[in-house]
């Protein structure tokens, strides 16, 4: 049996984990499971694609960095894409979720996110059609790194980026004032209000962070696989499963669970067959719900 | 004229099949407050269960028992109800969101099984030669469609009356009480989880029956019939009709299906060929926006109960 699945699983798991951070934060702070989160991912990937094409049209084609498939325009576009995805999330919140939140029925917000998800995804199909697109058509050579594992330069770069994003998130949540306030609000909203935490700011920060990380995950899928309007929908179940397996509200949990699910999916592809891959997240979800619904790092619901 | 009559009967039959699913959803959501985003999955389980039970024997597929259509319907209700019951047992002691996520997963997995378990479901090509009621008069389209409409309308009426009766029964009153004030209901000694699992399973069984009715009405099923868009259409139907009202569920289904078919026909006639796929996508955007607007402005729907609950 080839060990290649470990690398594939880690890559796949990083994308799931980055997406799951947003899901778990939205659930812990805004108190609803956001079915539109996968579509933020797809919108981020397309926004970045539009920016990359725009930069190429204005500044001409740029040489790739080292052995990577992309150059500096991709990095600029990725930052711009993350900002645009954040704005999209804020706009959605202002138009839809904030108004429903004021009425205080959590499950209505879930339903609204389901409607918004359908609309956002179909809008992408309208704008870009359902055929896949790519950031680059360049073919990368995979280098052997021992034990029968081969890796491309893009994969190494994106694993490093994921690691940096996750570390940055961890430091932000534990060291920064905003991060501490977010955790305080998720643990006890009433008490957080009493001590003077600005709830509107916490809500904005949650959307911006969740959307930016969703965009990063979308760009990773775009660079390593392809960009399609349905890419977010396909990631939704693994992301939800990771958020629940990791324990709602726990960022290290979401990342670790994302890696577990990514590795299980890759192992399934190798042992059983690629066509059953999407069932892995469901099997893990059901197992967690029956055995330990609070997840790995979660706290029991009060 | 003959064509129009025949088409009218066909349209109404399709709309009423959606009506049956929406009645099932109304039992889950309108009466009990349980959120289901895997409707297409439960609908598909019913369709395939009945198809496998009733089709004649074939060489390359399990099943093909050649049983009567009524047995297929019962099997569809049993299997879809069982799937819903398991989903409910797994999630209904937890927060409402977990049920939503799990039902979403059920639809994903059912879609995978339809596509990949070829020995059971025929894979992407689906199952053909499903026996149709009154197949003997198939060469007379008006009579055939009219008779089938009567079958579908009969099932819809039976489910409607059964649900109306259930929602007025003590059982229905417990469900309403649980939705309105869970603590009060529990303190009267009612097990919230057990009642909710029952309601979710019963709703799933109704959706499964709708799947079976449609499978026998069309005579052919394939995984493409059960995409997430279907779940979404049914939600739009219930929200337009007004959750909580069985009459609204059926009316909402007819209205939304008429808008859907009408706008589809309009784009097919007006939009040039290479833009058709895009126009179809825009149709779904419109329904999504409509669903959000109803949630914002008129959460009780247009035919909903007059005493608003939200």
From TrEMBL, chain A:
User: InterPro entries of this UniProt entry?
Assistant: ABC_transp_permease, BCAA_transport_permease
Q: Single Gene Ontology BP term?
A: D-alanine transmembrane transport
What molecular function does GO assign, one term?
Answer: L-isoleucine transmembrane transporter activity
Q: Does the keyword Cell cycle apply?
A: no
Keywords, in A-Z order? Amino-acid transport, Cell inner membrane, Cell membrane, Membrane, Transmembrane, Transmembrane helix, Transport
Instruction: Give the transmembrane ranges.
Output: 6-30, 42-65, 71-96, 108-135, 155-173, 207-227, 239-264, 276-300
Q: Where in the cell is it found?
A: Cell membrane
Q: Which Pfam families match?
A: BPD_transp_2
Query: Would you name any one GO CC term?
Result: plasma membrane
The way this protein sits in the membrane is described as: Multi-pass membrane protein
The UniProt entry's sequence similarity note says: Belongs to the binding-protein-dependent transport system permease family. LivHM subfamily.
Name by which UniProt lists this protein: Branched-chain amino acid ABC transporter permease
Q: What lineage, starting at the top, does this entry show? A: Bacteria, Pseudomonadati, Pseudomonadota, Alphaproteobacteria, Rhodobacterales
TrEMBL record, chain B:
- Subcellular location(s) per record: Cell membrane
Which residue spans traverse the membrane? 6-27, 34-53, 65-86, 98-117, 142-163, 199-220, 226-242, 249-271, 277-297
Domain of life (superkingdom)? Bacteria
Q: Which InterPro entries match?
A: ABC_transp_permease (IPR001851), LivM-like (IPR043428)
* Membrane topology recorded in Swiss-Prot or TrEMBL: Multi-pass membrane protein
Name where it mostly resides: membrane
GO cellular component terms attached to this protein's record: plasma membrane
Molecular function terms, GO-annotated: branched-chain amino acid transmembrane transporter activity
| Name assigned to this protein | Branched-chain amino acid ABC transporter permease
UniProt lineage = Bacteria, Pseudomonadati, Pseudomonadota, Alphaproteobacteria, Rhodobacterales
């Amino acid at each position: 049996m080839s060990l290649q699945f470990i690398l594939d699983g880690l890559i796949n798991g990083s994308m799931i984990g980055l997406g799951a951070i947003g899901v778990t934060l939205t659930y812990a702070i805004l108190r609803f499971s956001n079915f539109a989160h996968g579509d933020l991912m797809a919108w981020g990937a397309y926004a970045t694609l539009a920016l990359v094409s725009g930069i190429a049209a204005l500044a001409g084609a740029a040489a790739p960095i080292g052995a990577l498939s992309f150059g500096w325009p991709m990095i600029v576009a990725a930052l711009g894409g993350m900002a645009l995805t954040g704005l999209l999330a804020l706009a959605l919140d202002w138009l839809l979720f904030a108004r429903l939140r004021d009425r205080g029925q959590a499950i209505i917000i879930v339903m609204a996110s389901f409607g918004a998800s359908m609309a956002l995804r179909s809008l992408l199909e309208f704008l870009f059609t359902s055929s896949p697109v790519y950031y680059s058509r360049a073919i990368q050579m995979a280098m052997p790194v021992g034990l029968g594992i081969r890796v491309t330069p893009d994969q190494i770069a994106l694993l490093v980026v994921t690691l940096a994003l996750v570390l940055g998130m961890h430091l932000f949540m534990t060291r920064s004032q905003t991060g501490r306030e977010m955790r305080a609000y998720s643990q006890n909203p009433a008490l957080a209000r009493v001590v003077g935490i600005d709830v509107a700011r916490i809500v904005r920060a949650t959307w911006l962070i969740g959307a930016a990380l969703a965009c990063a995950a979308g760009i990773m899928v775009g660079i390593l696989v392809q960009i399609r309007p349905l890419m977010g929908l396909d990631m939704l179940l693994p992301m939800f499963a990771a958020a629940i397996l990791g324990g709602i509200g726990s960022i290290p949990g979401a990342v670790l669970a994302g890696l577990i699910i990514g590795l299980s999916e890759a192992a399934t592809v190798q042992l059983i067959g690629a066509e059953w891959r999407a069932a892995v997240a469901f099997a893990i979800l059901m197992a967690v719900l029956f055995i330990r619904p609070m997840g790995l790092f979660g706290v029991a619901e009060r | 004229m003959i064509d129009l009559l025949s088409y009218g009967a066909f349209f109404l039959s399709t709309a009423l099949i959606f009506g049956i699913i929406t009645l099932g959803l109304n039992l889950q959501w309108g009466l009990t407050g349980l959120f289901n985003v895997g409707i297409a999955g439960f609908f598909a389980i019913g369709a395939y269960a009945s198809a496998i039970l009733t089709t004649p024997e074939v060489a390359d597929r399990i099943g093909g028992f050649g049983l009567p259509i009524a047995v297929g319907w019962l099997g569809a209700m049993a299997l879809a109800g069982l799937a819903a019951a398991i989903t409910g047992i797994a999630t209904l002691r937890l927060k409402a969101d977990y049920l939503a996520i799990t039902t979403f997963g059920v639809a994903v997995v059912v879609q995978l099984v339809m596509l990949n378990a070829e020995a059971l479901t025929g894979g992407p090509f689906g199952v053909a030669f499903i026996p149709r009621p009154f197949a003997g008069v198939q060469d007379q389209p008006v009579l055939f469609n009219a008779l089938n409409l009567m079958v579908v309308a009969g099932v819809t009426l039976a489910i409607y009356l059964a649900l109306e009766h259930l929602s007025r029964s003590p059982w229905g009153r417990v469900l309403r009480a649980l939705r309105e004030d869970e603590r009060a209901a529990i303190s009267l000694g009612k097990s919230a989880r057990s009642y909710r699992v029952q309601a979710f399973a019963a709703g799933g069984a109704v959706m499964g029956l709708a799947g079976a009715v449609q499978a026998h009405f069309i005579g052919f099923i394939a995984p493409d019939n059960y995409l997430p868009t279907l779940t979404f259409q049914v939600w739009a139907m219930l929200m337009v009709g007004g959750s909580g009202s069985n009459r609204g569920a059926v009316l909402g289904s007819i209205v939304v299906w008429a808008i859907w078919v009408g706008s589809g026909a309009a784009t097919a006639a007006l939009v040039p060929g290479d833009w058709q796929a895009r126009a179809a996508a825009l149709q779904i955007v419109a329904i999504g926006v409509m669903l959000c607007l109803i949630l914002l402005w008129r959460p009780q729907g247009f035919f909903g109960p007059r005493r608003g609950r939200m």
